[in-house]
Amino acid sequence: MAPTATDYRWISEYRELLDGYCAVLVRGITVQQFLRGMQAESLGDLSGYAALDERTTEVLAEYRRNRSGGRRYLIGAASVPGDQGEWVLGLEIHGGRRS
Fold it and tell me: What InterPro entries does the record tag this protein with (predicted)?
């Protein structure tokens, strides 16, 4: 069955995602393998969407203050259950706020 707009109504609960986001689902690898593939540097563990939003805001503010360390982006990654086993969900929020 093809998805409909109703299937995506959940996004209205996360207003920050309306500004821009990037999400990816990958099956068959671990979170650590995903982060290595993204050439990501671990900044520690977070728990929940609110913590990811707060840390993303901090990283963007740091970039805007310094502008010397090159562009840094924050992507959260978590293992999630799904069809055919575990998946990795990668989520970058505030994608439209890179000025």
Answer: DUF6461
